Amino acid sequence: MEIEDNEKKIKVAEDQGRAYSAALDYMKEMDNHAEKEAGDYIISLASEEAEGTYQLQDGTLKWNTPKEGFNTHLEIVVRDKQDKRFIPGLKISGKVLDTNGNQIIETDFPLLWHPFLLHYGAFFRIPKEGKYRVQLEIPAPEFHRHDEIKGKRYEKDVRVEIEIAMETGREPHGPE
Question: What CA–CA distance (Å, rounded) separates 155 from 145?
Answer without folding.
Answer: 11
